[in-house]
Amino acid sequence: MDHGTHKSEIPTGLLVCNLGSPDSPTASGVRRFLSEFLSDPRVVDLPRLPWCLLLHGLILPLRCRRVAREYAKIWTADGSPLTAITRRLSAAIATELARTEHNLRVLPAMCYGKPELTTALEDFRLTGIRRLVVLPLFPQYSATTTAALYDAVNRELHHWRALPELCFIQRYHAAPAYLRTLVENIRAERKPEENTRHLLFSFHGIPERYVQAGDPYADECIATAEAVARELGLAKGRWALSYQSRFGREPWLAPETVATLTNWAKNGVREVDVVCPGFAVDGLETLREIAHDAQRDFLAAGGLSFRYIAALNDQPNHARALADVVRQHLAP
Protein backbone atom coordinates (compact mmCIF):
# COMPACT_ATOMS: atom_id res chain seq x y z
CA MET A 1 0.00 0.00 0.00
CA ASP A 2 1.44 3.39 -1.03
CA HIS A 3 1.17 6.46 1.14
CA GLY A 4 2.58 9.86 0.19
CA THR A 5 5.45 8.80 -2.07
CA HIS A 6 6.71 10.42 -5.29
CA LYS A 7 8.86 8.93 -8.00
CA SER A 8 11.76 11.19 -7.06
CA GLU A 9 11.66 10.03 -3.43
CA ILE A 10 13.17 6.89 -1.98
CA PRO A 11 10.81 5.68 0.76
CA THR A 12 11.35 3.61 3.84
CA GLY A 13 9.68 0.21 3.64
CA LEU A 14 7.60 -1.09 6.54
CA LEU A 15 6.86 -4.81 6.52
CA VAL A 16 3.94 -5.81 8.77
CA CYS A 17 4.33 -9.55 9.32
CA ASN A 18 2.19 -12.28 10.80
CA LEU A 19 2.70 -16.03 11.01
CA GLY A 20 0.46 -17.09 8.14
CA SER A 21 -2.47 -19.28 7.22
CA PRO A 22 -3.49 -21.79 4.54
CA ASP A 23 -4.72 -20.20 1.31
CA SER A 24 -7.76 -22.48 1.30
CA PRO A 25 -9.66 -24.54 3.93
CA THR A 26 -8.82 -27.78 2.15
CA ALA A 27 -6.58 -30.71 2.98
CA SER A 28 -4.16 -29.72 0.20
CA GLY A 29 -4.12 -26.07 1.29
CA VAL A 30 -3.49 -27.02 4.91
CA ARG A 31 -0.82 -29.51 3.88
CA ARG A 32 1.13 -26.86 1.93
CA PHE A 33 0.95 -24.48 4.87
CA LEU A 34 1.81 -26.96 7.62
CA SER A 35 4.60 -28.47 5.55
CA GLU A 36 6.28 -25.08 5.23
CA PHE A 37 5.58 -24.05 8.81
CA LEU A 38 6.61 -27.27 10.56
CA SER A 39 9.70 -27.71 8.36
CA ASP A 40 11.20 -24.53 9.81
CA PRO A 41 13.97 -25.56 12.26
CA ARG A 42 13.12 -22.52 14.39
CA VAL A 43 9.67 -24.00 14.96
CA VAL A 44 10.68 -27.64 15.38
CA ASP A 45 14.38 -28.06 16.12
CA LEU A 46 14.54 -31.86 16.02
CA PRO A 47 17.13 -33.61 13.80
CA ARG A 48 16.10 -32.89 10.22
CA LEU A 49 15.92 -36.31 8.58
CA PRO A 50 13.93 -38.14 11.29
CA TRP A 51 11.62 -35.14 11.70
CA CYS A 52 10.97 -34.78 7.96
CA LEU A 53 10.18 -38.49 7.68
CA LEU A 54 7.77 -38.24 10.61
CA LEU A 55 6.21 -35.01 9.36
CA HIS A 56 5.56 -36.15 5.79
CA GLY A 57 5.00 -39.83 6.52
CA LEU A 58 2.66 -39.61 9.50
CA ILE A 59 1.74 -36.16 10.86
CA LEU A 60 0.59 -34.42 7.69
CA PRO A 61 -1.38 -37.36 6.28
CA LEU A 62 -3.22 -37.78 9.60
CA ARG A 63 -3.82 -34.12 10.51
CA CYS A 64 -4.54 -32.19 7.34
CA ARG A 65 -8.14 -33.22 6.71
CA ARG A 66 -9.11 -32.65 10.34
CA VAL A 67 -7.38 -29.26 10.49
CA ALA A 68 -8.96 -28.28 7.16
CA ARG A 69 -12.42 -28.95 8.62
CA GLU A 70 -11.59 -26.61 11.51
CA TYR A 71 -10.44 -23.87 9.13
CA ALA A 72 -13.62 -24.27 7.08
CA LYS A 73 -15.66 -23.39 10.18
CA ILE A 74 -13.99 -19.96 10.52
CA TRP A 75 -13.43 -19.19 6.82
CA THR A 76 -14.95 -15.92 5.58
CA ALA A 77 -15.78 -14.32 2.24
CA ASP A 78 -12.37 -12.63 2.50
CA GLY A 79 -10.61 -15.93 3.17
CA SER A 80 -8.65 -16.78 6.29
CA PRO A 81 -9.53 -14.42 9.16
CA LEU A 82 -5.88 -14.11 10.16
CA THR A 83 -4.82 -13.12 6.64
CA ALA A 84 -7.75 -10.78 5.99
CA ILE A 85 -7.46 -9.01 9.34
CA THR A 86 -3.67 -8.69 9.00
CA ARG A 87 -4.15 -6.98 5.63
CA ARG A 88 -6.66 -4.55 7.12
CA LEU A 89 -4.48 -3.91 10.15
CA SER A 90 -1.49 -3.20 7.89
CA ALA A 91 -3.57 -0.68 5.93
CA ALA A 92 -4.78 0.94 9.17
CA ILE A 93 -1.19 1.24 10.46
CA ALA A 94 -0.21 2.84 7.14
CA THR A 95 -3.03 5.36 7.49
CA GLU A 96 -1.98 6.23 11.03
CA LEU A 97 1.69 6.61 10.08
CA ALA A 98 0.80 8.77 7.06
CA ARG A 99 -0.21 11.49 9.52
CA THR A 100 3.45 12.04 10.40
CA GLU A 101 5.57 9.89 8.09
CA HIS A 102 5.18 11.04 4.47
CA ASN A 103 7.70 8.81 2.77
CA LEU A 104 6.75 5.33 3.90
CA ARG A 105 5.61 2.29 1.92
CA VAL A 106 3.73 -0.28 4.00
CA LEU A 107 3.12 -3.89 2.96
CA PRO A 108 1.71 -6.94 4.80
CA ALA A 109 3.44 -10.30 4.60
CA MET A 110 3.37 -13.75 6.17
CA CYS A 111 6.19 -15.91 7.42
CA TYR A 112 4.45 -18.86 5.75
CA GLY A 113 1.83 -18.70 3.03
CA LYS A 114 0.40 -15.61 1.35
CA PRO A 115 0.89 -12.69 1.02
CA GLU A 116 4.42 -13.94 0.55
CA LEU A 117 7.38 -12.35 2.23
CA THR A 118 9.42 -12.73 -0.95
CA THR A 119 6.86 -10.76 -2.98
CA ALA A 120 6.76 -7.88 -0.51
CA LEU A 121 10.53 -7.67 -0.28
CA GLU A 122 10.88 -7.76 -4.06
CA ASP A 123 8.46 -4.84 -4.22
CA PHE A 124 10.64 -2.93 -1.79
CA ARG A 125 13.80 -3.82 -3.73
CA LEU A 126 12.34 -2.55 -6.99
CA THR A 127 11.22 0.61 -5.21
CA GLY A 128 14.81 1.13 -4.15
CA ILE A 129 14.21 1.54 -0.44
CA ARG A 130 17.21 2.47 1.65
CA ARG A 131 15.67 1.52 4.98
CA LEU A 132 13.56 -1.52 5.91
CA VAL A 133 11.55 -1.66 9.11
CA VAL A 134 10.10 -5.04 10.05
CA LEU A 135 7.17 -5.19 12.47
CA PRO A 136 6.46 -8.78 13.55
CA LEU A 137 2.92 -9.05 14.92
CA PHE A 138 4.28 -11.08 17.83
CA PRO A 139 4.23 -8.87 20.94
CA GLN A 140 6.28 -11.34 22.98
CA TYR A 141 9.56 -12.45 21.41
CA SER A 142 10.16 -16.11 20.72
CA ALA A 143 12.72 -17.84 18.54
CA THR A 144 9.82 -19.87 17.11
CA THR A 145 8.15 -16.76 15.67
CA THR A 146 10.19 -13.56 15.79
CA ALA A 147 13.52 -15.19 15.07
CA ALA A 148 11.98 -17.35 12.34
CA LEU A 149 10.84 -14.18 10.61
CA TYR A 150 14.27 -12.60 11.08
CA ASP A 151 15.84 -15.62 9.36
CA ALA A 152 13.38 -15.40 6.46
CA VAL A 153 13.99 -11.68 5.91
CA ASN A 154 17.73 -12.14 5.94
CA ARG A 155 17.56 -15.06 3.51
CA GLU A 156 15.90 -12.73 1.04
CA LEU A 157 18.22 -9.80 1.72
CA HIS A 158 21.15 -12.13 1.02
CA HIS A 159 20.30 -11.75 -2.69
CA TRP A 160 20.24 -7.94 -2.67
CA ARG A 161 23.24 -6.08 -4.04
CA ALA A 162 22.32 -2.84 -2.28
CA LEU A 163 21.30 -3.72 1.25
CA PRO A 164 18.88 -1.42 3.06
CA GLU A 165 19.43 -0.33 6.62
CA LEU A 166 17.48 -2.93 8.61
CA CYS A 167 15.40 -2.06 11.65
CA PHE A 168 13.85 -5.18 13.14
CA ILE A 169 11.34 -4.60 15.94
CA GLN A 170 11.99 -7.62 18.14
CA ARG A 171 9.24 -7.19 20.72
CA TYR A 172 6.66 -4.79 22.07
CA HIS A 173 5.20 -6.76 24.99
CA ALA A 174 5.91 -3.92 27.43
CA ALA A 175 5.20 -0.97 25.12
CA PRO A 176 2.87 1.43 26.96
CA ALA A 177 0.64 1.89 23.90
CA TYR A 178 0.22 -1.88 23.47
CA LEU A 179 -0.54 -2.45 27.16
CA ARG A 180 -2.94 0.48 27.23
CA THR A 181 -4.82 -0.92 24.24
CA LEU A 182 -5.07 -4.38 25.82
CA VAL A 183 -6.51 -2.84 28.97
CA GLU A 184 -9.00 -0.74 26.96
CA ASN A 185 -10.07 -3.83 25.01
CA ILE A 186 -10.70 -5.86 28.16
CA ARG A 187 -12.52 -3.02 29.91
CA ALA A 188 -14.76 -2.57 26.90
CA GLU A 189 -15.98 -6.16 27.37
CA ARG A 190 -16.16 -6.26 31.17
CA LYS A 191 -18.62 -3.96 32.93
CA PRO A 192 -17.38 -2.60 36.28
CA GLU A 193 -19.60 -5.00 38.18
CA GLU A 194 -18.11 -7.91 36.21
CA ASN A 195 -14.66 -7.50 37.75
CA THR A 196 -15.54 -10.53 39.86
CA ARG A 197 -15.37 -12.74 36.76
CA HIS A 198 -12.14 -14.69 36.57
CA LEU A 199 -9.81 -13.60 33.77
CA LEU A 200 -7.46 -16.03 32.04
CA PHE A 201 -4.55 -14.82 29.91
CA SER A 202 -3.92 -17.58 27.37
CA PHE A 203 -0.70 -17.50 25.35
CA HIS A 204 0.51 -19.86 22.63
CA GLY A 205 2.76 -22.48 24.18
CA ILE A 206 6.26 -23.60 23.24
CA PRO A 207 8.32 -26.57 24.45
CA GLU A 208 9.83 -26.11 27.92
CA ARG A 209 13.31 -26.90 26.64
CA TYR A 210 13.20 -23.87 24.32
CA VAL A 211 12.84 -21.65 27.38
CA GLN A 212 15.51 -23.60 29.25
CA ALA A 213 17.82 -22.97 26.27
CA GLY A 214 17.36 -19.21 26.64
CA ASP A 215 14.13 -18.23 24.84
CA PRO A 216 12.71 -15.26 26.84
CA TYR A 217 9.15 -15.87 25.70
CA ALA A 218 7.70 -17.09 29.00
CA ASP A 219 9.14 -14.13 30.93
CA GLU A 220 7.61 -11.71 28.44
CA CYS A 221 4.21 -13.41 28.61
CA ILE A 222 4.29 -13.11 32.40
CA ALA A 223 5.33 -9.46 32.18
CA THR A 224 2.42 -8.65 29.85
CA ALA A 225 -0.18 -10.47 31.96
CA GLU A 226 1.04 -8.95 35.23
CA ALA A 227 1.07 -5.42 33.80
CA VAL A 228 -2.48 -5.72 32.45
CA ALA A 229 -3.83 -7.39 35.62
CA ARG A 230 -2.26 -4.65 37.71
CA GLU A 231 -3.79 -1.89 35.57
CA LEU A 232 -7.19 -3.60 35.71
CA GLY A 233 -6.93 -3.84 39.49
CA LEU A 234 -7.54 -7.58 39.51
CA ALA A 235 -7.25 -9.25 42.89
CA LYS A 236 -4.95 -12.25 43.33
CA GLY A 237 -6.81 -15.41 42.60
CA ARG A 238 -9.11 -13.66 40.12
CA TRP A 239 -6.76 -14.09 37.19
CA ALA A 240 -4.19 -16.55 35.89
CA LEU A 241 -1.85 -17.18 32.96
CA SER A 242 -1.83 -20.33 30.86
CA TYR A 243 -0.52 -21.73 27.57
CA GLN A 244 -2.45 -23.32 24.72
CA SER A 245 -1.90 -25.11 21.39
CA ARG A 246 0.32 -27.95 22.54
CA PHE A 247 1.76 -30.18 19.86
CA GLY A 248 3.65 -33.44 20.28
CA ARG A 249 4.52 -35.38 23.40
CA GLU A 250 7.40 -33.47 24.96
CA PRO A 251 6.73 -31.12 27.92
CA TRP A 252 5.45 -27.67 26.97
CA LEU A 253 5.04 -24.56 29.08
CA ALA A 254 2.49 -25.00 31.86
CA PRO A 255 -0.18 -24.60 33.07
CA GLU A 256 -2.19 -25.61 30.04
CA THR A 257 -5.24 -23.51 29.15
CA VAL A 258 -7.98 -26.14 29.04
CA ALA A 259 -6.64 -27.84 32.18
CA THR A 260 -6.72 -24.48 33.98
CA LEU A 261 -10.30 -23.77 32.88
CA THR A 262 -11.61 -27.21 33.81
CA ASN A 263 -9.87 -27.08 37.20
CA TRP A 264 -11.45 -23.69 37.83
CA ALA A 265 -14.89 -25.05 36.96
CA LYS A 266 -14.44 -28.09 39.19
CA ASN A 267 -13.40 -25.79 42.05
CA GLY A 268 -16.45 -23.58 41.83
CA VAL A 269 -15.48 -20.88 39.34
CA ARG A 270 -18.60 -20.23 37.29
CA GLU A 271 -17.82 -17.18 35.14
CA VAL A 272 -14.65 -16.63 33.12
CA ASP A 273 -13.28 -14.35 30.46
CA VAL A 274 -10.34 -15.46 28.32
CA VAL A 275 -8.03 -13.08 26.48
CA CYS A 276 -5.09 -14.04 24.25
CA PRO A 277 -2.60 -11.14 24.34
CA GLY A 278 0.01 -12.93 22.24
CA PHE A 279 -2.28 -13.02 19.19
CA ALA A 280 -2.37 -9.64 17.45
CA VAL A 281 -5.27 -10.83 15.28
CA ASP A 282 -7.71 -13.69 15.55
CA GLY A 283 -7.14 -16.99 13.80
CA LEU A 284 -7.76 -20.70 14.25
CA GLU A 285 -6.05 -20.83 17.66
CA THR A 286 -8.41 -18.24 19.12
CA LEU A 287 -11.64 -18.58 17.14
CA ARG A 288 -11.81 -22.37 17.39
CA GLU A 289 -9.39 -23.53 20.08
CA ILE A 290 -10.46 -20.91 22.64
CA ALA A 291 -13.82 -19.40 21.66
CA HIS A 292 -15.29 -22.81 20.79
CA ASP A 293 -13.32 -25.76 22.18
CA ALA A 294 -12.17 -24.23 25.48
CA GLN A 295 -15.66 -22.83 26.08
CA ARG A 296 -17.18 -26.27 25.49
CA ASP A 297 -14.77 -27.90 27.94
CA PHE A 298 -15.26 -25.24 30.63
CA LEU A 299 -19.04 -25.50 30.46
CA ALA A 300 -18.90 -29.31 30.45
CA ALA A 301 -16.80 -29.20 33.64
CA GLY A 302 -19.44 -27.14 35.45
CA GLY A 303 -18.83 -23.55 34.36
CA LEU A 304 -21.85 -21.36 33.61
CA SER A 305 -20.54 -18.39 31.61
CA PHE A 306 -17.58 -18.22 29.24
CA ARG A 307 -16.57 -15.18 27.20
CA TYR A 308 -13.71 -14.94 24.74
CA ILE A 309 -12.41 -11.37 24.49
CA ALA A 310 -11.42 -10.94 20.86
CA ALA A 311 -7.90 -10.04 19.76
CA LEU A 312 -7.10 -6.39 19.10
CA ASN A 313 -7.40 -7.11 15.36
CA ASP A 314 -7.76 -4.03 13.13
CA GLN A 315 -9.38 -1.82 15.76
CA PRO A 316 -8.32 1.84 15.38
CA ASN A 317 -6.68 1.91 18.83
CA HIS A 318 -4.60 -1.14 17.92
CA ALA A 319 -3.41 0.47 14.68
CA ARG A 320 -2.54 3.64 16.62
CA ALA A 321 -0.63 1.64 19.22
CA LEU A 322 1.43 -0.22 16.61
CA ALA A 323 2.02 3.00 14.67
CA ASP A 324 3.39 4.44 17.92
CA VAL A 325 5.74 1.45 18.28
CA VAL A 326 6.96 1.94 14.70
CA ARG A 327 7.47 5.70 15.17
CA GLN A 328 9.77 5.04 18.11
CA HIS A 329 11.99 2.99 15.79
CA LEU A 330 11.78 5.51 12.94
CA ALA A 331 12.95 8.36 15.17
CA PRO A 332 16.53 9.46 14.43
- Top-tier CATH class of the domain at 176-309: Alpha Beta
Shape: globular
Largest sheet: 5 strands, mixed
Q: Strand tally, please?
A: 9
| Alpha carbon gap, first and last residue | 24 Å
CATH fold assignment of the domain at 176-309: Rossmann fold
Indicate the mean pLDDT: 95
Count of helical stretches: 12
Rg calculated over all Cα atoms: 20 Å
Poorly predicted segments: 1-8
The structure class reads: alpha/beta
H-E string = EEHHHEHEHEHEHHEHEHHEH
* Percentage beta strand: 15-25%
Just name the CATH architecture of the domain at 176-309.
3-Layer(aba) Sandwich
Write the layout of secondary structure elements.
Blueprint: E1 2-3, E2 12-21, H1 27-38, H2 48-74, H3 81-97, E3 104-113, H4 117-127, E4 131-136, H5 143-157, E5 165-168, H6 176-189, E6 198-204, H7 208-212, H8 217-232, E7 239-244, H9 257-266, E8 271-275, H10 284-287, H11 289-300, E9 305-309, H12 316-330
Parallel strand pairs: 2-3, 2-4, 4-5, 6-7, 6-8, 8-9
Antiparallel strand pairs: 1-3
Helix pairs in contact: 1-2, 3-12, 6-8, 6-12, 9-11
Structure write-up:
This protein has 332 residues and is α/β, with parallel strands linked by helices. It has a domain at 176-309: 3-Layer(aba) Sandwich (Rossmann fold). Helix content is 48%, strand content 17%. It contains twelve helices and nine strands. The chain has a five-stranded mixed sheet, sandwiched between helices. The protein has a four-stranded parallel sheet with strand order 7-6-8-9, with helices on both faces. The two termini are 24 Å apart. Residues 1-8 have low confidence and may be disordered.
